[in-house]
Amino acid sequence: MTTTLEISEKIYSVAEWLELEKHSEIRHEFYYGKLIPMAGEAKRANKIAKNILKLIDDPLIEKRFEVFSHDVKAEVVPNGIYRYPDLVVAPDVDDEDDYIVKHPVMMVEVASKDSKTRDRIKKRKEYLEIPSMWYYLIIDQDEMLAELHVRNENGQWARGLHLTEASDLIDLPKFNIKFELGEIYKRVKLT
Description:
By secondary structure, the protein is α+β, with helices and mostly antiparallel strands. It is built from five helices and 13 strands. The chain has helices at residues 4-9, 14-23, 43-62, 116-127, 181-184; strands spanning 28-31, 34-37, 65-69, 73-77, 81-83, 87-91, 100-101, 106-111, 135-140, 146-150, 161-163, 169-172, 177-180.
């Protein structure tokens, strides 16, 4: 059996990684041939992701978008970086691959104290480079805090909005969806 240490030292092709993921007990993100093991998530993070899914899923289906959660990979850099965002939204015609969303328009990460820096800096930089992306939403699992990045009509990213009040509005105009930050934290005990 291959250990995590052995996996992290070997350089894999995308095809090798995809085959490994089909049989692996843990998920691995792919970063230029290196495999990054994904830790399990807290119940709080899972509830937050489910709340967001409930808020956006039906309206997006009506607009011909699909929302995928946790175990679906998103292509960030073709043949270079593949991530497992907590939620990824794509046009429902994005059927090029059964396992990978290749043209995401929105990604959501629920940040823990261990992933905050990676989600807010490294992944933000990566995700905002994806040509098809419109929104990147980072939600803190420990305190009421969201960071929303929106690409404007000129293709430029507006400065990220920091939302901290339950009544603060998360506005996704390309989807014609709005909801209050507090709705994301329904039934979630914050620390």
